[in-house]
C-alpha cells in the first residue's frame, strides 16, 4: 500500500532529523562563526564531527531522494512515472 510506504518514509525522515539537529547544533555553537574560515585550522574533534555530520546528512538526502522519487511516483507494472507536477525532477 502506497500510504504505508509514504508513512514509513516520513517516520524515517523524522528519526534522521531528530538525530542530526542536536549534533549540528553542538558543532555550530561550539566554534566562533567565521564564514570564510577553513576547516583545516579547526580542532581535530571539530573536523571529525563535521565530516560525520556531512556523511550522515548525505546518506539521509540519498534515502530521501529515493523515497521521494521511487515510492511516491511508483505505478505497478510501469515503474516510477513523473508528471508535470514533479518540479524537483
The separation of the N and C termini measures 23 Å
How much of the sequence lies in strands comes to under 5%
Main β-sheet description: 2 strands, antiparallel
The overall pLDDT average reads 81
What is the number of E strands?
Answer: 2
Class by SSE composition: mainly alpha
Helix-residue proportion: 55-70%
Number of helices: 2
| Arrangement of strands in the largest sheet | 1-2
Low-confidence stretches: none
The best one-word shape is elongated
What is the radius of gyration computed over CA atoms, rounded to a whole number of angstroms?
18 Å
H-E order: HHEE
Q: What does this entry look like structurally?
A:
The chain is mainly alpha-helical and 89 residues long. Helices cover 66% and strands 4% of the residues. The protein contains two helices and two strands. The chain has a two-stranded antiparallel ribbon with strand order 1-2. Helix 1 (2-30) runs antiparallel to helix 2. The longest helix is centred in the middle third of the chain and has 30 residues, at 44-73. The radius of gyration is 18 Å and the shape is elongated. The two termini are 23 Å apart. The mean pLDDT is 81.
Amino acid at each position: 500500500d502506497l500510504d504505508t510506504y509514504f508513512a514509513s518514509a516520513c517516520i524515517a525522515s523524522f528519526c534522521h532529523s531528530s538525530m542530526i539537529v542536536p549534533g549540528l547544533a553542538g558543532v555550530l555553537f561550539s566554534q566562533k562563526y567565521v564564514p570564510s574560515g577553513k576547516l583545516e585550522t579547526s580542532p581535530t574533534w571539530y573536523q571529525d564531527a563535521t565530516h560525520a555530520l556531512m556523511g550522515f546528512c548525505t546518506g539521509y538526502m540519498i534515502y530521501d531522494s529515493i523515497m521521494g522519487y521511487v515510492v511516491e511516483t511508483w505505478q505497478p507494472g510501469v515503474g516510477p512515472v513523473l508528471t508535470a507536477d514533479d518540479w524537483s525532477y
